[in-house]
Amino acid sequence: PGYNMRMVAPLTTLNRISRLSEKAVLIKDGTALERLLEIDTVVFDKTGTLTLEQPTVDSLHPYNGFSEETLLTYAAAAEHRQTHPVAKAILAAAEQYDIPFNDIEDTFCEVGYGVKGVFDGKIISIGSRRFMEMEEITVPDAVQSVQENAAEYGHSVVMLAADKLMVGAIELRPTVREEVADVTAQLRSRGITTYIVSGDHEYPTQALAQQLHIDHYVAEMLPGQKAKIVEDLQKKGKKVCFIGDGINDAPALKQADVSVSLRGATSAAVDTAQIILMDGSMSNLIGLFDASEDFATAQKRNLLITTVPAVICIGGVFVFRFGVYTSLLLFFAGLGGGIWNAGQKNHLTY
Questions:
Q1: pTM (2 decimals)?
Q2: What mean pLDDT do residues 293-307 have?
């Protein structure tokens, strides 16, 4: 039986890995598929994992008598040729409000700060508060208040000025992945405890945990503390799956019993994680748990199929006086049955 299982068990593992690859799931460590069955706690990194890189325009805050439409028109013109996430969010909002994307002239981009150019005869400056200060543009108290209030909710603010006069501010909120609510609901139905860990402020982290019905959250964390959270859970006897995508997630991914990352994550996270969701979505996460259960069932069948003929073979030799050929036939029947079972497709639909 041991000889048969040494042949059949790897075939079963390879078969499941192959089937998962067809679903855009890359298994780098076959033992992770087996350990998934023991997982009782899933820890999500917040930024980039539960949320998308591209934010969403939450609200417009015009100033100095300008309208919301004018604020968004100037912003869309300035960001028309840009490809960073904030620009995409602004252009998506402009498209939603049916605002035309007019090109800005003489564009100047200060990486990490903002963009400046000429539009409709005015010098348009859009970017961070620091960019406004660099351009010697006065930021009114009302706009500063918008930024301070937005920070409490985990939102970011982009400021815009025309001819050094403040036009207003655009408030951006993180975009939660569409599939996450369904994933967390299915994890709860399996009795799995969920956590969010984040370096953001407590309020936005708490709000997201409540929105997604996640059991626990830990906010305002330093990068190195994520691995400590996983370790502390393991010391309590928990089997932890950590899901992250950032450079500072690598230690936690390494510490976890099972580690998952997404395609498009940082190279440190992809190199460390045992499982990569190649479609960049978490929609296949529940399918992974289903595949783990199917894998365990297949292994039990393998043990039964390969053991029973071998026991009959040995018992037959000593009790029923089976001959050599009959014994060999029973042995290979067990091996063949195990190989056949190992090669069967799982019938999971995910």
A1: 0.75
A2: 65
